[in-house]
Amino acid sequence: MSVLDFYRRPLRNLRISVTDRCNLRCRYCMPEAEYVWLPRRDLLTFEEISTLVDVFMELGVNKVRLTGGEPLLRRDLPELVSMLSAKPLKDLAMTTNGVLLAGHVEALKKAGLNRITVSLDTLRADRSKTLSQRATHPSVLKGIASVAPAGFTDTKIDTVALNGVNDDELIDLIEFGRTVPAEVRFIEYMDVGGATAWSPDLVLSRAEMLTRISAHYGPVTPLPNPDGAPADRFALPDGTTFGIVSSTTRPFCATCDRSRLTADGLWYLCLYAMEGVNLRDPLREGATKAELAELISGAWRARTDRGAVDRLAERDRMPFVPLTALKRDPHLEMHTRGG
What we know:
There is one protein chain. The chain has helices at residues 46-58, 77-85, 105-111, 125-132, 137-147, 170-179, 206-217, 280-284, 289-301, 307-312, 323-328, 334-337; strands spanning 13-17, 63-67, 91-96, 115-119, 156-161, 183-188, 221-222, 232-235, 241-245, 258-261, 266-268, 277-278. The chain is an alpha/beta fold and 339 residues long. It has a domain at 13-155 and 257-337: Aldolase class I (TIM Barrel, Alpha-Beta Barrel). A twelve-stranded mixed beta sheet has the order 7-8-9-6-5-4-3-2-1-10-11-12. Strand 8 and strand 9 form a beta hairpin. The chain is globular and about 60 Å long. The two termini are 27 Å apart.
């Protein structure tokens, strides 16, 4: 069954945050000293997540990505992976900051995880400590090094490119990706959630990235994107590929098929959405799968979200959510809704 929204975008990709907690405090995501955490009693159990995934699959979802916070902080995560990998999904992936990855990678592979994406914003330990406010860079590199030996392929490295901060490492990161091996995806700095210090001056644009990369390697070739993935992919003259997620300067809202389920069961239809659909309470109150499917499909059919496009049209663009609003509602944070 294929459910289409107002703009005829299918419900296809589901990102599931398994915890809102994180062991880093990246300045572009979680810069504050203190946060309001979701009550543990409100978090979905693995069985509840599995049930909701069954319903989403009936409505067309065929790709699931586990996120956080940092997903490896959720105890016994391989158990959830085993439950989900038994389903006929096209892809089951996970995004992690890599700090704990080396200790879990073999169990995740055995449980049936298909792919891993690791966040890596810099190759420099001192710069990493400044960005993440933690001295965990060696553990991240160790985690990345453990992925291929565990049997994973099609690995991705996500880098938030910040003008004047790590923009001098584009080439170094591409070269590092060759050694993993992994495809590096550069992400424009977005003004969402905890990006309370966001400024247009900090955004390294897709156009500027391509200019710098082409100046070093020679002309790059755009690659097809049949699945409507968020990253525009390119090939260097020698065939090495990389991606750019240009949500800030060239939004992909027209083809966005992604939605996000928080760890406590709120379903967000857009990264910029201010409100989500509560799926936890109906589930715990005994709603049938058919009733849940009706709730989900109805919300998706009414979806008109084009958050990044709307933001791009604003004349005086400032951080999307002020700190006072974030403190009132932790669901507005990107570490809660899975980024």
